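Batch job 17 of 40 flagged for manual review because the log was empty.
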Amino acid sequence: MATVREASAIAKKSLAMRDYLWPNAASNLWHRTANKGFATIPKTFPFVLKIMDEMTKGAPVSSTFLALWCSTWDNSYVVITNPAELSQAAGFGGQRGVHTWGGRMKKLQELNFIDIKPGKSGPMNHVIIWNPHVVLRWHHDVARTPGLVEASFTSLIERAADVGAQDMLTPLPSPAQPAQAPATSTPIAAATVATPSTTPLPPA
């Protein structure tokens, strides 16, 4: 895992190489400090989304999760006032688009990636997004959820180590309650684990 100083040196080297290969390209590139309307995502995200779709084979949820994530203000919380807009963003159009999107949302909730609360705009008005690293570790280490591919999970761990994503690597104290099946409408503990004996569980 690279230190902060090493990461800075790598970034500078990468920038120098980019500018050598594509001189004067900067004005045609997107940059978060120069443009509004961006979301922060972990560098592990492609691996996270891949695993999600493997866990929900036949009804992939990654596009729904990504659309939700891009609707936050870096606070892991989304207020849904227009389901049709989010369903379109997730790739579900037509008359059954909102219905299909709603099914994907419920699947994300069943798997503890999100929780949903009703409000004045309907039954899916308020959404919180739990840390997907913690959720996936719980599925892998405790729930042993079918569909979670070991090779993909190992790839996620490797990528997390490369980028210093400590919430995929750092052990936790033992959970306060015994292992249990995933429970909908309950938060995942906001922490990380290294072994099954120290995996955070959804509170009862």
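Reviewer: the log was empty due to a logging misconfiguration, but the result itself is present. Residues 172-204 have pLDDT under 50 and may be disordered. Unflagging and moving on to job 18.
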